[in-house]
Write a structure and sequence with these properties.
This protein has 15 helices and no strands. By secondary structure, the protein is mainly α. The chain has two domains: 59 residues, no CATH class; 213 residues, MetI-like (MetI-like fold). The longest helix is centred in the middle third of the chain and has 36 residues. It is globular and about 85 Å long.
């Protein structure tokens, strides 16, 4: 009877969304506690998200729009790969130029192995043919290692760090922004905004050592390096999320202050609605569009901007390859990492665009 009563209170779409959120929350908790995540839970997450994405797209009449965006994304990735390939070949020096010069015969054999002795058009065509087949090539630095293997080992760690930092950013930034707006021009508003400005201004390479010194050496609460469990996760997540928290808090505050002056808010107050209900049910939803717009670049920015955090905390993520591959002139690794980050940015912006119509029904994408 209880199950049947839920169907009267919630629609099937709402129940499905709650089930998907429950599975995702369980996955995040197990991942954070460093437990093994069952294979069936991964399938439920992927299947649920895919079904929800398809249902929402079709229900809102945005299937054509999504297909166009996907085709545009493929073309964009093609342009990015082409420009990156051309820029790498235009840079002075080569992948096998070292302080100690290799014998000409050895260098010629190495270049022949990686087809670097062929014309540029042949190299570009060879790379594209492998890319279409899902083969990103072999690394020049890590001998006999495929780029897909390197990315497969390091990308999940960077994504894990990024997702935790994103969740922390929204869980803290949005409530702080709403609270500051509701207490406009009071001491709490000024205190929160001073903290937000400090969070934006202080660089990660300064915040991280200070937190390590205080929490790891003075208090001995957390581990100072590596990525092996919950006690290792907290400080890197906090350091990586500090700046996004500050941005989101300031953006939410400014947007709430603008919306809170609307006529419908005055009407809700005149009807005697609870102040917190007005803020979080009416004002916040209509104030969330600027934050949502910022979310697309923020997701990619957290992943690409985690190099300093991963380096300081010795986290074996993918961000280190973004810089090291350029230093080593590792062309396939540079191209692979660039394509991954570009894909994340494009997909994040697509999801953000689709969510516009949820937070503001007046928006219709066609």
């Amino acid at each position: 009877m209880k199950v049947l009563s839920l169907f009267y209170v919630f629609s099937p779409g709402t129940l499905a969304t709650l089930c998907i959120c429950t599975c995702l929350s369980l996955t995040l908790i197990l991942s954070f506690l460093n437990y093994h995540i069952p294979y069936w839970l991964w399938l439920l997450n992927l299947g649920g998200l895919g079904t929800l994405f398809a249902y929402y797209t079709i229900k809102k009449g945005m299937l054509t729009y999504v297909l166009k965006r996907i085709l545009g994304a493929l073309f964009t990735l093609f342009i990015i790969s082409t420009i990156t390939f051309a820029l790498l070949r235009a840079l002075p020096g080569g992948p096998f130029d070292r302080e100690k010069t290799l014998p000409p015969e050895v260098k010629a054999n190495i270049e022949a192995k990686y087809h670097l002795d062929r014309p540029l058009l042949y190299q570009y065509g060879y790379y594209l043919s492998g890319l279409i087949q899902g083969n990103l090539g072999e690394s020049y630095k890590y001998i006999d290692r495929n780029i897909s293997t390197i990315i497969g080992e390091t990308l999940p760690i960077s994504i894990q760090l990024g997702i935790y930092a994103l969740i922390l950013s929204y869980l803290i930034g949005v409530p702080f922004g709403v609270w500051a707006a509701s207490r406009h021009n009071t001491w709490s508003d000024r205190f929160l905004m001073i903290g937000a400005i400090s969070g934006v201004s202080l660089p990660s390479f300064l915040v991280a050592p200070l937190l390590i010194l205080f929490f790891c050496f003075y208090l001995n609460w957390f581990e100072a390096a590596l990525w092996e469990g919950p006690s290792y996760y907290i400080l890197p997540i906090l350091v990586l999320g500090t700046r996004p928290i500050s941005f989101i808090a300031r953006l939410t505050r400014a947007s709430v202050l603008e919306v809170i002056q609307s006529d419908y808010v005055r009407t809700a107050k005149a009807k005697g609605l609870n102040g917190w209900a007005i803020l979080y049910k009416h004002v916040l939803k209509n104030s969330f569009l600027p934050v949502l717009t910022f979310s697309g670049p923020l997701i990619a920015g957290i992943l690409t901007g985690s190099f300093i955090v991963e380096h300081i905390f010795a986290i074996p993520g993918m961000a280190k390859h973004l810089v090291n591959s350029v230093t080593n002139r590792d062309y396939p690794l540079i191209l692979g990492v660039t394509l991954i980050y570009s894909t994340v940015l494009i997909f994040a912006n697509l999801v953000v665009d689709l969510l516009y119509s949820y937070f503001d029904p007046r928006i219709r994408l066609s």
